[in-house]
Amino acid sequence: MTTAATAEQVESADRALAELVRGEAAWAACDLARRRLLLEQVHARTADRASAWVRAAAAYKQLPDDSPLLGEEWMSGPYPVLTATSALAAGVRALEEGRSPVDGFPLTTAPGGRVAVRVMPHGIWDRLLLSGFSAQVWMPPGVTAEAVREEAGLALRRPGRTAGVSVVLGAGNITSIPVLDVLYELYAHNRVVALKLNPVAAGLLDVFRAVLAPLIDVGAVRILTGGADIGTRLVHHTSVGHVHMTGSARTHDAIVFGGGEEGAHRKRAGTPLLTKPVTSELGGVSPVVVVPGPWSEADLRFQAEHVVTQRLHNGGYNCVAGQVVIVGSDWPQKDRFLAHLRTALAEAPQRSAYYPGSDDRVAEALESYPQARVLGGRVLIEGIDAAEPGPALTTEYFAPVLGVLELPGDERAFLASAVRTANEEFAGTLAVNLIAHPRTLTRLGPSMDEAIAELRYGTVAVNAWAGLGYLTAAASWGAFPGHTLDDVQSGIGVVHNALLLNNPERTVVRGPFRPAPRALAHGEAALSPKPPWFVTNRTAATTGRRLAGFAAGPRWSALPGIFSSALRG
């Protein structure tokens, strides 16, 4: 049931926009040094309020105080804001000193005449805390290394030329999203921001106001609450020149074209109700491609937990959640892998279905697939027909629903088929995950990089969850480029992107196939144990809290505590 906006909410919204119109001049007057100082102040306030932030998130997500799943809130709440403010501040300082934000980040080549910027590991801390993991940002074909360096910085290269007022419609699931989106609007695009919180996350209002107080005080940010009525008033207000939103493609279309048959007609006719520029991050159906290979029983068990994490992190309410696993029907170990997958899904920690509409979406999945099974309160759909797959490939369930699609062929034929299927049959282009044994990767050779290049996704992860791309401050995050308002898929534009690269194409994340110490025993140069974002990690809350503390103030003395907790996970 939607509650109409009160007169007080309407007045507050109008007043906030009027203040932002005046505040734009104050933001334009902030030189690079001042903007860097503001980032450092937001960083300090995030560190000070990190515990309150996690408590507020846990309250509406109904997580008990002793739950290991609190680690998710540390690592997807204050932690990425701490790393983002640090990375952005470093880029601003580079511009102050006449350098490019890209200086110090290795530039290499990628298939198709692309330049790739290695954004992780960057420095000793990454090498120690994320041993074996890496991330690159690939630029579109034809962009030169010189252009990458010269264009990095975006609007910060002309800070006095502001671009009006933007409305950010905040997400309700991952609590760092609203703050990171505000920072990107301010620093990448030079727009002052009215942040409208999702009603689901309204309990974070006080925390967000405290964290963003330096930017609020300078007149560059206002934070508002309310339902759809307030959101509609904000985006259509004459003072607003741009809208950024996080949500679903359905919500995007309702905002841009309007609801009901009239909205559908406008979409078909290409006549949007909202005529302002709109950028967005909208999720989709993320595939998890399991490439056949010579896996041990321990490999099968670990990677089953990995896949289940990709689905169940944050209860399944992630735009980047893995929703359909693509496995080889001819893979001799397929049945053992699926057995481990069922076990991991059934035995993962229980949690409340906090996000609105979850039960209805689960019911829809069960109705669409009579063969579906409920395991530990989660839905597993095996036996999806490749010829007539049904809604699992095109409907973002945003709930604990996991499908399995089988394709034939040896590793090369399977990979080619999986890439085609992911590109042509799945809704959305936000992220795709590939899991492959190191020996399989060796045999595939350049074919794997060619497959990565062929995949039309904003983040491609190999032996890592694409969510790590979200957590990497200097990585770009968003849909694959090229979508339009009337075929928006996973959205338009990117966020995060702390190097402020101009129009990046995608992020490529890689990780170790096995956790330490097994990785070392099999010749993988990786010291990372089971990642703390795994839903099965027993010490995730402690590790996450210590990682956030480290991000607030990196220091050698904090490392033993992080390592000891991580190793017990």
What is the alpha-carbon Rg in Å?
23 Å
> What integer is the average pLDDT?
97
Percent helix, as a range, is 40-55%
Count of discrete alpha- or pi-helical segments spanning 4 or more residues: 23
Low-confidence stretches: none
Structure summary, number of beta strands: 19
Main sheet record: 11 strands, mixed
Q: Would you tell me the structural class of the helices and strands?
A: alpha/beta
Strand content: 15-25%
Question: How many angstroms does the end-to-end distance come to?
Answer: 42 Å
Principal-axes geometry comes out as globular
Numbering strands along the chain, what is their spatial order in the largest sheet?
A: 1-2-3-19-15-14-9-10-13-12-11
Features:
single chain, 569 residues, alpha/beta, eleven-stranded mixed beta sheet, six-stranded mixed beta sheet, 43% helix
Task: Summarize the SSE layout with pairings.
Blueprint: H1 7-28, H2 32-48, H3 50-61, H4 70-76, H5 78-96, E1 107-110, E2 114-120, H6 124-129, E3 134-138, H7 145-151, E4 165-169, H8 177-189, E5 192-196, H9 205-211, H10 213-217, E6 221-224, H11 228-236, E7 240-246, H12 249-257, H13 260-269, E8 278-281, E9 286-290, H14 297-312, E10 322-328, H15 334-347, H16 358-368, E11 373-375, E12 378-384, E13 401-407, H17 411-425, E14 431-435, H18 438-444, H19 446-454, E15 459-462, H20 467-471, E16 476-478, E17 491-492, E18 494-496, E19 506-510, H21 518-521, H22 540-552, H23 559-567
Parallel strand pairs: 4-5, 4-7, 5-6, 7-8, 9-10, 9-14, 10-13, 12-13, 14-15, 15-19
Antiparallel strand pairs: 1-2, 2-3, 3-19, 8-17, 11-12, 16-18
Helix pairs in contact: 2-5, 4-22, 5-8, 5-22, 12-13, 14-15, 22-23
